[in-house]
Amino acid sequence: MAKSGQARVLSSKQRQHLFEVIRNHRHSEKNTAIMNISFKLGLRAQEIALLQVKEVARLNKVGTDFKLLEIMSLPAAYTKGADALKRSKSHYQRKSISFDIDSFNKVVKQIEILAKSGADISPEDFYPSVKKHKGKSRDLPMVDSGLRKSLIEYLNLRLGKGEKLKPSSPLFITQKDGPYSPNTLQEHMALILRDWAGIEKASSHSGRRSLITNVIHKQKKSVKIAQKIAGHVNPSTTLIYEEPPEEALEDALKDL
Q1: Which helix or strand (DSSP H or E) is residue 71 part of?
Q2: Does pTM surpass 0.70?
Q3: Is residue 166 one of the residues assigned to a domain?
Q4: pLDDT reported for residue 83
Q5: Which has the minimum average pLDDT: 4-8, 39-43, 174-178, 230-234?
Q6: Which residue, of 11, 74, 104, 124, has the fewest CB within 10 Å?
Q7: What is the Rg, in whole angstroms, of the alpha carbon atoms belonging to the chain?
């Protein structure tokens, strides 16, 4: 079961229910494709929002037909911490900072000198620099039949409306025909999961957590494989998913 604050890992029944609800709701082609990418490729909401058509399909010269690719090549710039297309409005806010002893002593001396000179002192001036996350590219085979079917149906829907696609066209667009910001798509996915499907404590990260948990616990694949799928730089991040899934805890607690 997820720790407090973590996205819920969905059971197979909950996943089936989710996609049934989406099929009977508005914009079913788009939302099915979005959730398939989340649950079957493990992409984060930001990564899905930044996807362009060229990541999933090869277009003809005039953008009126396409061939779905076998492998999605996800650029490093799309991954967590990157704002590749300047669509994210989120800002990094420090909750804690740390210094080694030598650096701390230097900061104290600097503050002493400024205080004696009567200069204004702002704490932010002494914070250590933020280490920017460069992201990690990854190639993800698009082999799942449900995933492929949903992408084909969604792209055909857009072409059927007379849209001429470009390789750089956003893969998913809003009702106003513009690209999603990562924050907007995150909220949209949470709406589908919690309000439409009624799945408590689910979020846009539930698909990613469900996939990685499934790879480790049900498919019994190595953490290295799970790390590659997730695009984690550090394997210790992937090890978080070695916690027993909610289904295992339910089986242990029923009919005692």
Answers
A1: strand 71-74
A2: yes
A3: yes
A4: 52
A5: 4-8
A6: 124
A7: 22
Q: In sequence order, what are the residues at sequence separation of 6 or more whose Cβ sits closer than 8 angstroms to the Cβ of residue 91?
A: none
- Chain-centroid distance of CA 118 in Å reads 48
- The span from the CA of 165 to the CA of 60, in Å, is 9
Cβ atoms < 10 Å from Cβ of 224: 10
The CATH number covering residue 193 comes to: 1.10.443.10
The span from the first CA to the last CA of the chain, in angstroms, equals 19
Question: Is 106 contained in some domain?
Answer: no
What value does the mean pLDDT of the chain take?
85
Q: Domain containing 65: what range?
A: 12-88+133-253
Residue 162 neighbours by CB under 8 Å, 6+ apart: none
3-state SS, 79-99, equals CCCCCCCCCCCCCCCCCCCCC
Average pLDDT over residues 123-143: 75
Residues 44/205, Cβ–Cβ less than 8 Å: yes
Provide the domain count of the chain.
1
**97 is a domain residue:** no
Tens digits of residue pLDDT in 10-34: 999 999 999 999 999 999 999 999 9
Residues 49-92 pLDDT 10s: 999 999 999 999 988 999 999 999 998 888 765 555 554 444 44
Rounded to whole angstroms, how far apart are CA atoms 76 and 57?
Answer: 19
**What is the residue whose two structure tokens read 């061939």?**
67
